[in-house]
Amino acid sequence: MSFMSVSVKAMEAIAVVAFIFVTGVTLAMYQINFGGLSHLVNYSKTPAYELYGTRLYENGTLFLQVARVAGPDTYGGFISLVQVLYPNGTVLYQWNESQLAHIPSSDITNKYDLPGHLTHSTGFALEVPLGQNSTIILQMPMHVKPGNYIVRVYDVDGQDSAYGITFQVEVMAQG
């Protein structure tokens, strides 16, 4: 009888140690692969955008190509500010939330034509669903000189970066 009780207690101890070890390894691998050991990472918490393919023309037309690559899938990410900056960081022109809230649907091209999953103006910002890649045509009321510029977008919470992704791209004004 004492042999059985020792055996059961030893097995319980082994199970607890194994559980703690496996949990620790799982959490460690997640953090190492997705953001290091400095902070916890949750890619479904904050929206993130990539702006690859964005083009600026000398006549003041901006083809803003936005891909939403992270964030909650239950609602869209809301872009409330788009800026065109000189290389030194000075703002050349910007579109605020009220301007972005009234972009005609004819100026928005969605790569994926999925009902209910389209980039659109919401009346208070520009909504970009998770996984959507869209091109939005924005017009400045002026011409821009040839040269390099920075295009930056801000989410409704005021962030211009998340998960190591900065929501900006360098562009050269084209003729």
From TrEMBL:
Pfam families: DoxA. Residues 37-163 form the Thiosulphate:quinone oxidoreductase small subunit DoxA domain. This is Aa3-type terminal oxidase. The lineage of its organism: Archaea, Thermoproteota, Thermoprotei, Acidilobales, Acidilobaceae.
